[in-house]
Every structure is written in C-alpha cells, then in structure tokens.
C-alpha cells in the first residue's frame, strides 16, 4: 500500500511531522513502513506558462517557436512536442531550472532560434510513466484552465508528495484504505479524524425501476448493492484526484473509472462501474459460473470459467468475474451515459479462486481476499455516487437495489486491567487504558477495572482478548514494556546424549581433517537411487517424491547424503579445487510403504568423501593422493573413540568399485559402508579417485556406552614379537589376525600390521604381511619361553589355516 | 722445592692462558698433573724432606695442583661454551619456512551459528529439541492456528508429498509436538533448530531449503516483558553488548501479540546506512505471545498458562554478521567459502 501524505492530511492532522518521523512512529506501532518515496524527484524553477503564440520553426519541420507568458515575463521557447498549441497552460522550466536527473535548463539556440527554457512532459517532471494516463504520455502536459500563470507546478502536480510504502501483515487489511491508515495515524498521533462526505443528492427516479438484484450464490455474496447514475459525462477526473491516484500508483483513465479507484483506495471497498446501456438486461444475477462458460474480461482475454468461480451476470451471460475483473461487454467508455455501480461483499475464498486461477491479482481482488469492513460497502457506493454527480455531472437515482444478508454487527469484548498487566508485565492503570481505547476510536464502557470494548467492524482482525492486548501494547509502545526474566520453574538447560554425541562426532571429523558440508535434502530422482547403503536399500520401498516439485533438480527426498555430496565435489573440481575432504551429518528419509501415507523414518547418517591429494605438496614432503586406507583410518579413529569395534567385509555395492568396497558391521548389524567410487561414477561426476563412507549414526549412538569400565594400566613389562608371514593374495589381514588371536593364548594384547609386501621377491600370487604382536600379563613379568610357545603355536595354526609360512 | 712448585704453577698457568682448544687442556693436564708430571715428581721426592717441611710442601703441592686444575676448568668451560655456540650456530634453521601441515577440517558456518545460539539458550535454561523434517499437515499448520483454508498455507508455498504430508515449512511443529507430548502437565522451555523447506526458486536471497531456530517458553504467568528480557539478553550476548534492541508489533498466526525484533545497525551505529536501508535497525527475528488456540490444541489451558515463542533464520543472521551476499553459498559448499569459517570464534 502506497500512502500519499498529502492525501492522508485530508483526514488527519499530521502536525508537522516529517515523513521520516511519521514512518518511524507508524513502524513502531505495528505497520512496517518499508520505504519513503516521492511522486517525483525534486525540480526547481518550473512554473505554469501560458502559450500565447505557437509558430512553425523556420529551419525545422518538427519544431515550433512559442511565446510563453510565465507571469512576470514572456519567454520564447522552441518546442518539439506534437500536441503544443497556443492557448494552452503548460509546465515551463525556466532558464536556470533543474529537472529530475539533475538536468539543468539553460538558454540555447535551436537551429538558429533562441530558446529560453523548456516546456515539459510529465515524464520530464519525474513522474513514472506507468502512472501517467495514456493521452498524457506522448507530448507535453496541458493543465486545466483554472491554474494560475507563473505559479510553481510542484503543488499543482503534487510532485513533492511523500509516499510511505506500507509492508502490511495479513491481519491489517484495515490499512488497505486511506481511512484505515487515517484511523491508525490518528491513534498514534492522538488526533481526531475527519471523515469524507458521502451525502448524496438524488433525483426522483428509482434505481429499482432500472435494475433488480438477485443472488443465487448466497454463501459467496452476503451483500450486493447496485446504484444507478445517469447523464454521466465521461472525461478527465479533476487534477487533484488524478494526482492522488498517481501518488497511490494507479494510472488515471477517466472520471468514472478514476472515481471507483479513488473510493476503493479511500474506503478500501472495491467498486465496479458497468455501462448500464450495454449491460444487456434489467436484472443482475450473481451466481457460480457454469462449467466451460466463458467471459471476455476488460483486458480482452477470453477466460474459461468453472463452477469454482463467482460471476455477475445479466441473467443470461457473465458481465464480470466477481471481485476480480469486469467484462469487456459492459465496459465504461467515452460514450457511456448511464453507470450501473456495484458495491458488493464477496466471500474472500471465492475471489481468491477467481484471481488465482486466472492470474489476475488486482487492487480489488487483494482487498476482497483480505476481508472488507461490512459497514463500508454501501457507504463506499454512496460516496462514489456523490463524486460521480460532482465530477461527471451525473444524476444519482434514489435508493439502491440490493441483496443484504451481511452481518454488520460490532463485537464486544470485556477485558480487565489486571489481566492486561499480568500478560504484558506492565503496570498500566485504567485511565491510561481508557485513553488508549479513545486514541484507537474504540468505544467502551468502563466498570472500575473492567472494560467492555466495542470493536469497530473495520478491525476484523480483533476477535479475542489477546488481540485487544496487542492493541493496548502497541499503542502503549513496545518500547515502554519493561525487560524482565522469567520467574517460573527453573529447569536445567542441556543437550541430550544424542545431541552431545552428534557434536562430538562432528568435532572428531573436523579434527581428522574433514570439512563439514550441508547439502540439499531434495535431490533428483536419479540421484536419490544412488549409493544407498545396503541396510537402507533393504528396507526402503522407494525414494519419496514430492507431489508437485518445482524442478526435477529438487524433486525427491534423499536416501543417501552421498549423491548431493558428489555434486558438491564436482562443483569444486570444476572451479580448480581438486583436493577435497568433506563430511556431512544429516537425515535420510526412509519409507517402507509402496504408496506413502505415514511419515517416513528419518535416519541420521554421517557420510563423507575424499578426493585428490590429502596434503598438498610442501617444501619438505610429497603430497599424497587419497586412498582407501586413509579414509578407513579416519573411520577407525571414530570407532575407537566411540569404543565400538567394527568389522569390514569386502562387499559389492552399486556405484562402488567392486574390489575396493567394504560393508561395515557392528557384530552382525550392518551400519554402512566405505570404499572407492566406481570409476564410471567418478567419470560421470568428473572426479579423480574418490573414496566415500556412509554410517548409520542412529545405531552407533544407540549402542554407545557412555560409562566405560576402567582398564588397569599394565604394571609389568610387555614383550613385542614381530612376525612376517607369506600367504596367498586372497588371504586377508583380518583372516590372519583372527587365527593369530585364537592361537596366541591369553597374554596376547595387541596385533597390528606394520608392513605389506608383494613383488618380485615373492612367488606370484603371494604376499607378505608383517605383524607386530604385543604380549603382557597384568600380574607378573612374562617369561621369554611363554611368549616363544605362543609364537610357535601361532606359526602352526596360520600354516594350517592359511598355508602361511615365515618369510625368510 | 717451594720455588720449583711456584715456578711450575706460574708456568702451567701461563700455558693455560695460551691454550684455546680442548686438546691443549688435555695436554696441560697430562704434562703438569699426570702421574709422570712434575708435581707428582715433587710429591714423590717428599721422602727426602724433613718432617717439618713435609706437610708444608705437601700442602703447597696440593694447592698448586688445585690452582692449576681450577684454572684449566675455568678456561675450559669458556672454550666449551664457545665450541657449543659454534655448533649451535651451524645448526640454525630458517624459522620462517612453513610448518609441516596437518590436515584440518572445520564446521559449516550454519552449524557454528546454530551451536552458538543453542549454547546461549541452554545457558538460560532452555532444552534443545528436534523433530521430523517431513511433517503432517496437522503439526505443520493446524496445531499452529493455521486452519485448512488459511491463505498463509497455500499449496504453492509448501512442498507437499501427499495431501497430509509435507516438508516442514518452519520448525514450529517441534513446539506443537513437545507441548502435545507434555499435554499441559509441565512447563516447556525449549529451542528447536533445524532444516525447513519452502517452495521458492533459489536465488541470492531465497533458498528452497534453509534453517531456523525457534524457541518456546510456556509456563504459568509468562509475560510479554519476559520475552523482551530473554531476547534482549540473547541479542546482547550474540551480537555484542553495545547493540540495542527494538520490538515492533507484527503478525504471525501462532502468536498474539506478535513482535518483530530489530537490533541497531552495527555498520552505522544506528545512524542509517545502506545495510539497514537508512533505518538504523536490522530485523533479526520474529516472535510473540503464544496464541491461545495453539496452547489449547496442545492441552494447555490458556487461562492458566501463557508463553512466548520466537524464531530466527541462521542464514540471515550469518549473512548480516559476515556480510555474505548470496544465500546459495551456504549450500554450494565451495571450499573457499567453507574454509573461511574454520577459525575459532
């Protein structure tokens, strides 16, 4: 809503507040003023001039040489406008004038003839073209005759009018009218408001003789009123009205249309003017449209309707899409003599249907959708009729043909001073509260500390005690509320075990060199089916798709964090950042239903990806390319810290390298996977060797034991034995370790692989694994013979189980 | 003999004076103090002396020996130090060469902001609750006083999955769920951070996915001044003690009265600049007193209980705090963006 301050002054005294001060006060009281603008950028030295003569320029076909009287002098001005003529009153920028855009006017010679200034168009005076009427757009602006020669044009054209741009919240539909804004401003500035005059002189002829109103769609149309104004003379609206419309951002058209728009803005009540002679009958019938019924609207578009839409008809065919736009068949034109004026109250949902389906949002439809003041509908009609009489020389017929089932009653609410204060934390006394109601122009009956307040119908948003509470608080001033801290039960604020663990895991990954990413939960349908961990693939019926996605790019809920992470890697690689180590913690969405009906399981996963070099090349060390074991080391570190023992089993997972992928288990429970991306996927995402992991954090958090038992620190020396075994390539480290642990006896504490060799010194198909074995006894020093015995047992068992031999 | 000893001492001390390598000292030590050295010889010849002379010469000999030894040790220490210094000098490295790098990661900026918000509210006794991102229509809208035909819940604005399921459009359903869980049995004091989704086309200021942190406090006798006090404390701790706050009336379907909170602009100190659109204030969060319908639906009697709720957008806060110009940066995960916020803050 654009609020012209000059217009607002017609209803309420703004004292001497600057636009900025007013904006700040209004904003603090609840309606956000988003900005302050002016009808036009400032210009100086532009006055009304009278063209006394207008001759052809001797040296130029398209130029005229005019003598223009500007009060104290007469200026000779060369003008190129087609519509210039003698006898006109025009806007003259005198030499020394400055026009918008810092355009300075000087005396100059144009094709040999001196020109002492410039005759201006409205555009040149800084008015936005969108708000200028069609006929004024091409050429200079011509004033009505009653303007005074030599006077500054700023006032005549309302150029310095400040406009407050209101950013209205949906509840404040009342401020979609100048009257509503006036009430609000009056409350803030503690002023009384001057209401517009809607008294109308009528002639003896009766509206009812011209038109009857029937409403078939009663639910949708609580009120429909029809006025008739005859002998209309269509022409331009008065300058002041056009000025206000321009300030409000509406292009003037002609007096009839301008008056309906003016009253729409003034009362917040949409009106529609039909050309009665073209209406086609003496009956208005308001009903739902028929299936496939059509109407050509004012914009000359043919609209196909459905029974969801409400239409005004002449009993046969639609003449308007109710509350949205009129029909071309009954449009007011220059020839219009008799106006059928509609003032109606349509149901907001019905209007929304019409405006939404036809993508026609207008000043009218917006107001219907947000709700009207039921007590202003008819008044607005009367006000418009009065203005049509005054500014279009119309004659207003007696009465109104109407259908009226509109509830116009005012609601009453009782509030107590105590209750207000206990909710606000304030100590406002009854006198001050009474004063606040007076400022708001709410009538009330006071009974000690209790008020029974009558809510004016313009404030449809006030329905319950809390709404009154807000009114009191905002007029009292939110700034004046005290600062207090809650006095109720004090509880301890803390994170849950799961939240703490989540933070812990994040910190671990970051310490281990991974950067946290956050990607989109909505992905493409294709990506949603990629890189799904086997335990998820087993239970998820299919990825969940949005019913109406905006784009395929974000159409489907993710079943793995990895595909979007790969997209993120790709994005970086394309920007020459090839060395990446990322992780993300987030939810995936698993539904077990074929046809989703209930909320999916949201499972917390930790995923990560590394690609490129791990440490970039430095002066004293070589950069290393990432590999499987680097990532596995990171994951192992996490498990160590969570005191959970995982096992890795060679697995094949779609989109993963078949030889370099392991599924991760805790006992027999699958909790995710780790491995290299399949080279074809790498290529698809333009990535070099990339390793990824995906873990079920929910499960890890469930089994995490936050009370570890104490392991005694060994008091006796330990003994280390190294062993290098030659085995077939197919024998895994895990196989060997398992056998070793089984054979070693109770004193073997740790086994760790410290070397792997495969190459020319070994037979083909063989490899050598070197392991370090740590023995210790917590009660005494071990003897060499005891360790030796265990060692021999190990050698025997690994030979038996894996054909392992000692590497010579 | 006395003279001989004195002469030896003088001679030895002269040698010590001249010596400048560790080998020289060894030589001096051997030649004067060694088993075959002149002092030993003197001592050996003591047998020839009288009983009276013997202790005197013995004492003198020992004294000479001590004096020489001491002189050697003193001078040697000086030389040793010089040698060590020489060696240390040769070991000098260029301390300006870069250190051996350790790969470090770090949190996403949003995580950082959200954790900070969480910690501040935890300090004020709030618990942190989470809830599902795929919500039912009931919890996302109806329980929050947004009935089926409410314009604010246009199908166009939300990502629906079925008629009843949608991607939550705010984290407020977590509040409704928590209250619903307690059913009016006890006070609620919580914040709920999380991801939310709106049917927006991604551009510099819109993202179809973003985050929110919302808070709720419901108890007997909660006042609007408490909301002001709590938010003031949060703002001063989060944005700096010198920042002012201002509450303005606003509108949300789930609160009444509703507020929007501004903080004074840091750039211009409230004078008005392009960052604050000349107003001196920057909008930071929305909130208000919990609407009685919301309380009622969750089993809290609005005559007995009252409460306040508030919500803020970490993206917006981060953008304001760090001058980030495009909301999409949070989700493209450009390494150059992520790295900037890895420092401890």
Description:
The complex is a heterodimer of chains A (808) and B (345). In chain A, 27% of the residues lie in helices and 28% in strands. Chain A has a seven-stranded mixed sheet, sandwiched between helices. In chain A, strands 3, 4, 5, 6, 7 and 10 form a six-stranded antiparallel sheet that branches. Chain A contains 22 helices and 40 strands. The model of chain A has no long low-confidence stretch (mean pLDDT 94). Chain A folds into six domains: 2-39 and 162-189, Phenylalanyl-tRNA Synthetase, Chain B, domain 1 (2-Layer Sandwich), CATH 3.30.56.10; 44-156, Beta Barrel (OB fold (Dihydrolipoamide Acetyltransferase, E2P)), CATH 2.40.50.140; 202-404, 3-Layer(bba) Sandwich (Phenylalanyl-tRNA Synthetase, Chain B, domain 3); 411-476, 2-Layer Sandwich (Phenylalanyl-tRNA Synthetase, Chain B, domain 1), CATH 3.30.56.10; 497-703, BirA Bifunctional Protein, domain 2, CATH 3.30.930; 719-806, Alpha-Beta Plaits, CATH 3.30.70.380. Chain B folds into two domains: 2-90; 109-134 and 171-339, BirA Bifunctional Protein, domain 2 (2-Layer Sandwich). Helix content of chain B is 42%, strand content 19%. In chain B, helix 1 (2-18) runs parallel beside helix 4 and helix 2 packs antiparallel against helix 4 (53-90). The longest helix of chain B has 38 residues, at 53-90. Chain B is rod-shaped. The chains are: A alpha+beta (808), B alpha+beta (345). At the A-B interface, helix 2, helix 12, helix 14, helix 15 and strand 28 of A face helix 5, strand 1, strand 2, strand 4 and strand 5 of B.
Task: Briefly characterize the structure.
The complex is a heterodimer of chains A (808) and B (345). Chain A has 808 residues and is an alpha+beta fold. In chain A, the strands form ten sheets. Chain A has a seven-stranded mixed beta sheet with strand order 28-31-32-36-35-34-33, sandwiched between helices. In chain A, strands 3, 4, 5, 6, 7 and 10 form a six-stranded antiparallel beta sheet that branches.
